Amino acid sequence: MVPAAYCELDASPMPDGCATIVRLLAATSPNWPEVALVAARDPVLCLALLTAGPLAPGELDGEGLNAVLRRRLERLGPDLLRAWMLGVGRMPSAPGGDGGMALLRGECALHLALETRYPRPDEAYLGALWRHLAEQVRTGHPNGAAEDGTLQKADRRQEFTRIVHACGLSEAVCDALELGITLAEQLQDAHPLVRLLHAAQLLADDDWQARTAEVAALTGLTAASIASLRTDVAYIVSGHAAYPLPAHASGGEGALIAAADNPFREAAIAGLLNAAFADLEAGQIADRLAIGSPFFGLAIEPILLAADESGLLRSLLPGPPGSTAALFDELDLRLDDERSCIALSARSGQPSSHAYTGATPRRSTADWHVARWLGQRGFDCLPLPAAGYTATAVLPESAERAAAALRSLSAALLGAAARAIRSSQRRLTDVATREAALQQQFREHVRKIAHEATNPLTVIKNRLDLLGQQHADDSPLQDEMLLLNAELERIDNLLRRAADLPVGAAEIPICRVTDLLLEMRAVYGDPLFAQHGIGFELRAARDVPPAAMPASALKQVLLNLFRNASEALQPGKRLVVSVMGEVILNGRAHVEIRVADNGPGLPPDRLADLFSPRPSTKGGGHQGLGLSVVRDILAQWKASIVCRSQPGSGTSFQILVPLDQSG
So what's the pLDDT on residue 400? Predict the structure, then answer.
């Protein structure tokens, strides 16, 4: 059974093909190309995969059928695929026609397309492979038959065409499948694919040799070419259609797949479904459930619900704004709601259903909303075996015969997904709890350090105040005292921020670069450079526009570069800091700051990962943990840094900081 776009087929994959895939999936690392090759030979399985994961525009032509199927098989995963294979025997349907004949017809179409240079050969293969499936589309007639047999066949073909169109195939394939058997005169002005599929049907028949002239007229190939092509196809199909039995089995696994229900198979299916979602994150679970739902009788992805701590039913997989899941959350439906059949099912653990009544709600307006959002005449509520908490799935209304066969399989699939989602949520909660505990420990540790560091800072501040009072008439000294007090205040603020303590009003994210550099030269010029015999030169204009970066952040960047230079340069060398003015980068004005020296330069291996964290090696170049901090701070304010260095010729850093645009 393959559900698609509100309709289903009375067909199942070929048992021998299923058995082959089950064996291939038993490997530790499944051979997905081989699994895809087997899937491509099976009309129903191939259709199921493309129904669950419709083709993107150009995907089939660009990658080929096997690659397309392989990607969908990998999304399903081996456990979910094996669970479905084991459950196929429960379906009240028959294998999808004569698989050998379908494969022969598909290969004929593929090779005819290649010989005639039809631009989409895989499309021709699928059209021929599926040609017989239209007869196995279920109709809405209670007895499975219409009063007019001709009308019934046309209806079946139209319904099947909708399925194929939903797979993402072209209108040409849909036309060929809807036309079915066509008269010779009708083929003359038909689309080339229609003629090609008709020719493939003639070649696949037992009396193909008597129809060679017709095939030649349809394709333009010579009789000799057609005979050679047919011989090659027969050889290929005879090899493809053979599914070798394992050495230890006498009757094949196809019998196991189609066997009557038994508790061992039920346990195997449950275990595989649980394994299919194990250790996945919520996004991965949603993706696997999206492609897996159609395989378990769910033509539309269901809404999974669970009650939260406040007793509200919430979507386990929240969707984007405007999605059905998001709209449901906006309803704030309570678990104890007496009117809603959704709440009743979640509360009682029993199935329930709602019939859409048109423009006027019945008992529950919330249920009426959900039916409209699902686009169905009604919906079913299926309790989920979610182990220890209230959960339910809201599914589009199903036909009775399909619901009876698929209810337990659907419940097992959705229950496994719900449990996996809960497990993922618990893992995230546990991680968040551990991180919060570690952060709290860190904050307490830093608070202790900050508290201990406050004492010597207070002593230094008091001593500076005393010196200032003793030399009140010394203006240069008073200026130095102001700068030193400002730096001590900055250290105090850094300690407070590290300890996550309140520091008053937030700093304005604007600074004047030239003024900042003048202050830094006054404070750090002597201890970092002059005392070590290193020259420090500042070249900066005073009319540079303000930069869009806090002064403390830019000061930390420059101070790291200054310290690295002080450690790397020998006496007699020089560091030059220049403010170059305005530069346009990516359409926005920036101020350019250059920090250049004439020191030993950086070795090439260090230059390759200059901004990676690395312990400082004093005297060997501008190396240290400070450079990774520099990069991170600049990135936070959308600024950038570039380093240029040559051994023996010095090192230069170019910093680009966006200019303030608030004024």
Answer: 46
**Looking up tokens 């979910």, which residue turns up?**
80
Selection from 83, 33, 78, 6 nearest residue 416 by Cα: 83
pLDDT value at 379 more than 70: yes
Cα(637)–Cα(657) distance, integer angstroms: 8
| Cα 158 to Cα 177: distance, rounded to the nearest angstrom | 9
pLDDT at 386: 61
Q: Name the DSSP letter for residue 511.
A: B
Overall size of the chain counted in residues: 663
For the cut 60, the answer to whether the pLDDT of residue 502 exceeds it is: no
Q: What is the mean pLDDT of the chain?
A: 80
Question: Which residue from 543, 555, 545, 544 is spatially nearest to 507, judged by alpha carbons?
Answer: 555
Q: Please tell me the distance from the alpha carbon of residue 328 to that of residue 312, in angstroms, as a whole number.
A: 11
Give SS3 for 535: strand
Closest CA to 122 of 165, 162, 69: 69
Predicted TM-score (pTM) of the model is 0.56
- Only one residue has tokens 């205040």, namely 489
Enter the tokens of residue 37. Answer: 């090759």
Distance of CA 111 to the CA centre of its chain: 37
Classify the phi-psi angles of 434: left when phi > 0, otherwise alpha if psi is within -120 to 50, otherwise beta: alpha
pLDDT one-digit tens code per residue, 26-67: 777 889 999 999 999 999 899 989 988 999 998 998 889 999
Lay out the sheet containing 535-539: strands in order across. 535-539, 574-585, 588-597, 650-658, 640-646
Q: Is 465 helix (H, G, I), strand (E, B) or coil?
A: helix
Quote the CA–CA distance of 659 and 663 in Å, as a whole number: 10
Quick check: helix, strand or coil at residue 11?
A: strand
Q: What is the pLDDT of residue 382?
A: 84
Asked if pLDDT for residue 399 goes beyond 90, the answer is: no
Residue of 380, 369, 381, 382 whose CA lies nearest to 331: 369
The residue-averaged pLDDT of 213-220 equals 92
Q: Are strands 94-95 and 11-12 parallel, antiparallel or unpaired?
A: parallel
Q: From residue 46, how far is each of 37, 49, 357, 634 by CA, in Å?
A: 10, 5, 38, 53
Distance from C-alpha of 490 to C-alpha of 541, rounded to nearest angstrom: 26
DSSP string, 476-537: HHHHHHHHHHHHHHHHHHHHHHHTT---SSPPPS-B-HHHHHHHHHHHHIIIIIGGGT-EEE
Element (H, E) at 239: helix 223-240
Q: Tokens standing for 614?
A: 């690395």
CA angle 463, 465, 468 (to 5 degrees): 110
Taking the CA atoms of the chain, what radius of gyration do you get in angstroms? 37
Strand pairing partners for 653? 595, 643
Is pLDDT above 60 for 365?
A: yes
| Selected residue with higher pLDDT from 200 and 463 | 200
Q: What is the phi-psi region of residue 89: left when phi exceeds 0, alpha when psi lies from -120 to 50, beta otherwise?
A: alpha
Whether 241 contacts 41, CB under 8 Å: yes
How big is the CA angle at 395 (ends 337 and 362), to the nearest 5 degrees?
45
CA distance 197 to 214: 13
When pLDDT is cut at 50, 70 and 90, the band that residue 250 belongs to is very low
Three-state secondary-structure class, residue 62: helix
Q: Residue 391's closest CA among 319, 314, 334, 325?
A: 314
